[in-house]
């Protein structure tokens, strides 16, 4: 039930709820030291293995963000088995980051082999066909950075995929562990 905005000043906010929201934000963004300080200062219940899990997520996030999609995929499969199988869009996006890495490194033969082995199952679904065409067109350009779909090479695109991966891992089963 939504409260009438005119009544917000009459709503009492529970301090524990505020602590849970702040902790959720800190855990989501992998602020390990701040999480430790926050827990020490507030006395909020500390989740089991939260620091180790957070470090693993942080490593996965940074591998995706830094352009090492293969390592991000490998660690995701170890840390959250089945996640990429369940989330085909995310898996496709991670694979496409790897493909872009190969193209930008001018490893055309390796990129073609990778595309053939990893993208083939996606080519059977119409929602991926246009995306696959965009990625495969990268091979036609001497300088992929000048490709009309240059955003596929951008750090913003990698950031988006890394953020999606982080949210998916948290949503897998960790969010409930940390927040509530």
TrEMBL record:
Signal peptide: none annotated. Pfam families: CTLH (PF10607). Residues 53-110 form the CTLH domain. This is LisH motif-containing protein. It comes from Handroanthus impetiginosus.
